[in-house]
Amino acid sequence: MQKLAINLENLWLQCISEIEKRVPPQTCSTWFKPIVPLKLVDEKIIIQVPSRFHYEWIEEHYHNLLENVFLEVLRYIPEIQYTIVLGDPSFLQPPQENGSEIFSIGENINNENTRLNNRYTFDNFVEGNCNQFAKAASLAVAEAPGKTNFNPLLVYGGVGLGKTHLIQAIGNHVFKGRKAKRIRYVSSEKFTIDFINSIQNNKTSKFSKLYRNIDLLLVDDIQFFINKERTQEEFFHTFNELQQKGKQIVLSCDRPPSELKGLEDRLISRFNSGLITDIQVPDFETRVAILQKKSLQDNIQIPSDIIVFIAANITTNIRDLEGAMIKLLAHASLNGEDISMELTKRVLRDLIKRKNTNLTIETIQRIVCEFYGIKEDFIRAKTRKKEIVFARQVSMYLSKEMTNFALKTIGLHFGGRDHSTVIHACQTIENKIHTDKSFSTEIDEIKNKIELTV
Ligand code: ADP
Ligand code: MG
Question: What is the CA(165)–ligand 2 centre distance, in A?
């Protein structure tokens, strides 16, 4: 057994050195070095990757390369199977090899019994003003499920703000600390579908029994229960029974429960018997902290000015922040480029443009004028004084870059100038950005100031 492991390790080292010959160093360290080979049997190799995304990326871009490398080292092409580490599943099911769940392409990678994804933990949940209370309440529940007054605990907030992460973190914490036996995470959609299926198959009593015998029930996105009367009724009874038995219920929702029109009042009043808490959009500092934590986790160095740039520009939610970072890493590694400011701006251009629907041309004018120390009125007046023309051109350029307003509209905001004046201004400023590095930095600085106001 030991011998096999050593051989496998050696073999993988050989593979890595082959891979290094074929891809840039950064690609190798991002995508291949984190791989751990687990087993080679019967012409099948099992390799462990850090995340689902990692697996998908390799499958999409490096499958052939991996096969070629194996052919080189092993003299044949093995079947490649991937696994993702899933913590210690020994509690709810018999121990599996290496504490991992093995899956083939297309299979569900979640822990089947709890349906939890162990990627979501309190440890990697970054705290900020926006989520501090929700996290504290979740942790209290996770420490003593069913024993606090927070039952049910309901966390609400917009998309991508961390609701699923937080409620699954409760599940994982309870699971790890063995504080409850039967844990189940379910989206309200899945609950609904399973319930409908159980009706069709005459198995409603089995369904009810399953859900009413749980110690910790986590139901995600309960807004999907809206207008599904029979499912609501089933859920209501599940809820009551669990609560009577002192079992813990945790719910998430995309809006405050009071706004859940189409959900029975008796359910909403049940929610009020516990604790309702919200998660807000993260502020700038939290966004920076999240990006730093993610880069640390993935063992990838991202220069701090780039982290600040992303945090200043992607303000919508945490999922978008993560998406931006993944997109940037993927581009850098695919093209073997360093993560530079230039690359970041190029890759994230679309994401950044899309979000600025709240930004007005007046805000841009105000900040540019503050920056250059000139009176705002001048920029909209006929003045042809050099400094003012310059500030006006910068404002026009930034209006075009940072908003979706048409050139004509932009012109109108500058004392009724026409669109060709705006085009000329944009060209002038763009030229200067490309030829004058300190000016380019100055523009970035102004942009960051503008972003912080949105
Ligand atoms: P929601 O369920 O509210 O739509 P998710 O829980 O799916 O949002 O979060 C979106 C992504 O952002 C997930 O990958 C999650 O891990 C990450 N995320 C959310 N909040 C945080 C946080 N506070 N710290 C670290 N990552 C977070
Ligand atoms: Mg969610």
Answer: 7
Phi, psi for 351 (deg, rounded to 5): -60, -40
Find the 236 Cα to ligand 2 centroid distance in Å: 22
**Ligand 1 center to residue 227 CA distance, Å?**
27
CB contact set of 188 (below 8 Å; sequence gap of 6+):
219, 220, 221, 222, 223, 224, 225, 235
CB distance 14 to 82 below 8 Å: no
Orientation of helix 361-372 relative to helix 386-402, angle to 10°: 140
From 155, 165, 170, 286, the mutation candidate for ligand 1 (largest count of ligand atoms within 8 A of CB) is 165
Q: What residues line ligand 1, using a CB cutoff of 6 Å?
A: 124-126, 131, 157, 159-165, 290, 318-319, 322
Nearest alpha carbon, ligand 1 atom 26? 125
Contact criterion met (CB below 8 Å) for 301 and 334: no
Please give the single-letter amino acid code of residue 299: N
Instruction: Give the model confidence (pLDDT) of 200-241 as tens digits.
Output: 999 999 999 999 999 999 999 999 999 999 999 999 999 999
- 193: its two tokens: 């579908």
The answer to whether residues 100 and 63 touch, using CB atoms and an 8 Å cutoff, is no
Which atom, in ligand 1's list, is nearest to the CA of 286? 23
pLDDT in tens, 30-48: 889 889 888 888 788 888 8
Q: What is the DSSP string of 245-260?
A: TT-EEEEEESS-GGG-
The protein residue with its alpha carbon nearest to ligand 1, atom 18, reads 162
Residue 155 in contact with residue 166, Cβ under 8 Å? yes
> Could you tell me the CA-to-CA distances from 128 to 125, 296, 327 in Å, in that order?
10, 18, 24
Looking at all shown ligands, the one closest to residue 291's CA atom is 1
> Ligand 2 mean position to 221 CA, how many Å?
7
Please classify residue 286 by burial: count the beta carbons closer than 10 Å to its beta carbon, then call 0-12 exposed, 13-18 middle and 19+ buried: buried
Question: What domains sit in the chain, N to C, each tagged with a CATH number?
Answer: 2-93 (3.30.300.180), 132-278 (3.40.50.300), 284-347 (1.10.8.60), 361-451 (1.10.1750.10)
pLDDT digits (tens, 9 = 90+) for 281-328: 999 999 999 999 988 887 788 999 999 999 988 988 999 999 899 889
Instruction: Kindly report whether the global pTM for this prediction surpasses the value 0.85.
Output: no
Q: How far is the CA of 280 from the centre of ligand 1 (A)?
A: 12
Residues ≥6 apart with Cβ < 8 Å to 64: none
In this structure, the residue with its CA closest to atom 6 of ligand 1 is: 162
Structure tokens given for 252: 């998430």
DSSP E strands, 188-320 = 216-220, 248-253, 275-278
Mean pLDDT of all residues in 366-376: 95
